[in-house]
Amino acid sequence: MQTFPLQQSRFGARSGPMVPFPTTAGRGWTTIIKTADETQNNATIPGGTTLRADAQLRVPLVGGHRYRIRARLYLGALVNGTPDFNTTWRLIDAAGTIVADNFTLFLAQTLLTPNANTLTIVGPTTMSPAPHTASPTVGANTKGNTSSDEYNYVRWDLIVESLITTTLALCWNQDTASVFFTVCSRGSAIEYIEV
Amino acid sequence: MPGFPLIQIGRATAGPGSLAPAPPTVGSTGWVVIPKTADENRNSSAQAIDSQLQINVAAGQRYRLRGLLFMTCSANGVSVAVTFVGTATMTLFLAQHYSVSNTSAEGITSPTLWTPTPHTAYPAIRAVAVSGGEYVTYEIDCIAVPATSGTLGISWAQSVNNAGQTATMARGSVLEYQRF
Questions:
Q1: Residue A40: pLDDT above 50?
Q2: Who among A27, A31, A113 is closest to B178 (CB)?
Q3: ipTM
Q4: Who's near B21: CB < 8 A, 6+ residues apart?
Q5: Closest Cα in chain B, distance from residue A188 (Å)
Q6: Residue B28 has pLDDT above 90, yes or no
Q7: What pLDDT is attached to residue B41?
Q8: Mapped to the 3 state alphabet, what secondary structure does B79-126 carry?
Q9: Of A59, A91, A133, A171, which sits with the fewest C-beta atoms within 10 Å of its C-beta?
Q10: Could you tell me which chain B residue has the CA closest to the CA of A78?
Q11: Structure confidence by residue, pLDDT tens digits, A70-92
Q12: What's the pLDDT at A42?
C-alpha cells in the first residue's frame, strides 16, 4: 500500500499507512448552506415562473475540471396556493443572470418526495440524455408539488464539467405563477468536490 | 479558518452527556460524524433516544443532520421503528425519511407529512418490517432550528413489543451534523 505523510490524512494525524485521497484534488466536500429562507412569487418577480438562480446555492467551476455535486433541498409553498415549483441547474454570469450552457459533460439524477409519501426518482438517462452536455430542461422531471405550507424534499446528484471557468447555480421558480410565495428553506444545501 | 478538520470521527461513550466528538462551528463545511461503535439492543416497543446517535443543540442555532441506520431484529413479527426525539423545542423542524426493508421495499415520508405545518414538532415513529436476523436501512435528513437548548437524536424501538426478543441498532450506523 502506498504511504502518505501524516498531514495528508483527511481524518487527522494517525500512524501507519494512509488511505489515498478519494479525489485527484485531494479535498473533502465543500458545503454551501442557505442561511436564510428565500422566496419568490408572481408579485415580486414579474412573470414569477421565470427561472432564476438561487441567491446562495452556487458552485464555482474551473474550465476543464470535473466536479461531483450533490444538493439536498427543502422547498415549499407558504400560506396558500398551489404554485408547485421547478428546480434545475444553469450557468450564470457575474451578475447572477442565467447564460447559455457550455458543458462538456452534464450527468444528473434526482430524487423527490412531494406532498404525499411518494418517491420520484429520475435517472441520468432521462435527466441528462445523450450527448450529456445540456442542463435539464424545466418540465415534468424537474417539478415539485406543493400546497399550503408544505415542503418537498429534493435531491440532486451531478457530475459536471464546464468548458470555461464559470459559476453553476441551483435555479428554481414557481411552476404556476402565484401571488403566494414559494420558499427555498434555510438549511437547504449543496456540496461539491473536484474529481 | 475553522479549527476542525473537514470530517471529525469520534467515539461517543454511552449515555446522554457523553456526546463526543466536539460540536462543529458555524460556517464549517464538514460534517461531524457520530458513529455507533457497538450494537445496541432493545427488548420492548418503548421508544427511547439512542445511547450514541444524539447531539446537544443550543437555542437559536441552526443544524443540518443526516443519518444512515442499519437495524435488525431477532425474530419475525418484531420489526423496528424509528423517529427523531429530544428535549429541545423547535422553531423549525423539517425532516425526511427513506427506508428500505429486508425485501427491498421502499418506505418514505415526505417533510409535508412527517413534519407538517407548523413544522415545530418531532415526527411520528416510522416502522419497517424485517424478518429475524435480516437488516433494514433508514436514511434520514433534517433541518433543525431549536427554540431551546437540549438533546436531539434518533429514537427507536421494537415495532411490535416482544420482551423475549431484541431489536438492534447496528454498530456502524451513523448520525452526522453540521451548523450553518
A1: yes
A2: A31
A3: 0.75
A4: B8, B9, B10, B12, B32, B33, B34
A5: 8
A6: no
A7: 97
A8: CEEEEEEECCCEEEEEEEEEEECCCCCEEEECHHHHCCCCCCCCCCCE
A9: A133
A10: B117
A11: 999 999 987 766 788 999 999 99
A12: 78
Residue-averaged pLDDT of chain A:
84
- The answer to whether B130 and B71 have CB atoms below 8 angstroms apart is yes
Q: How far apart are CA A83 and CA A149, in angstroms?
A: 11
- Residue labelled with grid coordinates 498531514: A7
Q: Are A174 and A55 in contact (CB under 8 A)?
A: no
pTM of the model: 0.81
Cell of A124: 441520468
B24: exposed, middle or buried (Cβ count in 10 Å: 0-12, 13-18, 19+): buried
A33–B178: do the CB atoms touch at under 8 Å? Answer: yes
Find the chain A residues whose C-beta atoms sit closer than 8 A to any C-beta of B. 10-12, 27-35, 72, 74, 76, 113-119, 146, 148-153, 185-189
Q: What is the pLDDT of residue A65?
A: 95
Residue indicated by cell numbers 501507519:
A16
Mean pLDDT of A160-169: 96
* Element (DSSP H or E) covering residue A32: strand A30-33
Strands B7-9, B31-35: pairing kind: parallel
pLDDT of amino acid B3: 42
Q: Cα-flanking dihedrals φ and ψ of residue B48, to 5°? A: -155, 150
B21 upstream amide cis, omega within 30 of 0: yes
Chain B residues with CB inside 8 Å of A118's CB?
A: 108, 110
Using an 8 Å CB-CB cutoff, list chain A residues near B106: 119
pLDDT category, B54, cuts 50, 70, 90?
A: very high
Q: A148: which DSSP letter? A: B
